[in-house]
Design goal:
GO terms for molecular function: nicotinate-nucleotide-dimethylbenzimidazole phosphoribosyltransferase activity. By secondary structure, the chain is of the alpha/beta class. The protein is built from 16 helices and five strands. α7 packs across α9. The protein binds alpha-ribazole-5'-phosphate and nicotinic acid (NIO).
Length: 336
């Protein structure tokens, strides 16, 4: 069965988001208050443990099936010279993922995450969005569905992407979803110089102008300006929500995939953690618009779920403290 068989199915899924389990959240919050530490002293680690308890629906959350999924897609807009690297690198990096040689192979292993790579029609780049919608309705639904199907039975889902040119698509998605000049949302990506970044802003401006009258729904924004790997991440975020699986978002591109969904229903990010704030300048703005506070800020700007995978180690630390510590009663220590 196709997860998102029609635009209506996608829109219904986005309009009917389940909430976290309040009882499990309350139980985890109570437990944090009994652990042998001054209340609140583990800071954000406490919040992360309670967040996971709510979405997993258990007082003591766990990561037994932590899964990183990397979606890959090719972009027609690369013809406009918007990346420092050639489009061929996308398929070459997918081979590198399979061979185990990419950053995400090392970082997923370090974080104890299984890694799945989902290449989406790499021989068929999306259309250049300055000339036509990036995807047809069928192509976009198919990429969204591929995302949903990749979620599986994970208990923590870490999402990432590979697609040369996709920081341009991401800037267009952010601008279409939240407004603001394209110059605010573009950045060097893989390493453009200042002149390249200016051209990238012009390309985004052209794309927004071409599609302006149609950028009125999450689906049309994704379809016209996004890419297959971006729609794959969006579909995975939405499907994970319906299975109450917590998600860790990666950098600028992985976060921009959620922007169109959030423009239609801001509650979509409630089951998402931001793994890190990337060095791509638009990311900090995007996180502010989504109301997400990144776990890490390491000046990373790679993508591939690399920052989210590093953050998964912090999430494991939050769970270890939450589940492993003694309570005041167990340790026979006087409370405050
Ligand atoms: C070798 C290599 C590995 C990568 N892994 C992720 N990206 C990242 O760079 C791309 C986005 O930047 P832009 O929009 O400038 O093309 C995406 O593929 C992203 O995942 C890579 C880029 C390169 C060159
Ligand atoms: O923030 C990111 O995800 C990013 C930044 C630059 C290039 N690729 C990815």
């Amino acid at each position: 069965m196709t997860a998102f068989a029609s635009i209506a199915a996608f829109e219904t899924a986005l309009a009917t988001l389940p909430q976290a389990d309040d009882q499990a959240r309350a139980a985890a919050t109570a437990r944090q208050g009994q652990l042998t530490k001054p209340p609140g002293s583990l800071g954000r680690l406490e919040d992360i443990a309670i967040f996971l308890a709510g979405w997993q629906g258990i007082e003591r959350p766990r990561i037994e099936r932590g899964r990183a999924v990397i979606f890959a897609g090719n972009h027609g807009v690369t013809a406009r010279g918007v990346s420092a690297f050639p489009a061929d690198v996308t398929v070459q990096m997918v081979a590198n993922f399979a061979a185990g040689g990419a950053a995400i192979n090392a970082l997923a292993a370090a974080a104890g995450l299984e890694l799945a790579v989902v290449p989406l029609d790499l021989d068929q780049p999306t259309a250049d969005f300055t000339a036509a919608p990036a995807m047809t309705v069928e192509e976009c639904l198919s990429a969204l569905s591929a995302g949903a199907e990749a979620v599986g039975d994970a208990d923590l889902l870490v999402l990432g992407e590979m697609g040369i040119g996709n920081s341009t698509a991401a800037a267009a998605l952010a601008a279409a979803s939240f407004g603001g000049e394209p110059a605010l949302w573009v950045g060097p990506g893989t390493g453009l110089d200042a002149r390249g970044v200016r051209r990238k802003a012009e390309v985004v401006t052209e794309g927004l102008a071409l599609h302006r009258e149609h950028l009125t729904s999450a689906f049309e924004i994704l379809r016209r300006l996004g890419g297959r790997e971006i729609a794959g991440m969006a579909g995975a975020v939405l499907a994970a929500r319906h299975r109450r699986i917590p998600v860790v978002l990666d950098g600028f591109i992985g976060t921009a995939a959620v922007a169109p969904l959030a423009s239609a229903n801001p509650a979509i990010v409630a089951h998402c953690l931001s793994g890190h704030c990337s060095a791509e300048p638009g990311h900090v703005l995007l996180l502010a618009r989504l109301g997400l506070e990144p776990i890490l800020s390491l000046n990373m700007r790679l993508g591939e779920a690399s920052g989210a995978a590093v953050a998964a180690q912090i999430i494991r630390a939050a769970i270890a403290a939450h589940n492993g510590m003694a309570t005041f009663a167990e340790a026979g220590i006087a409370g405050a």
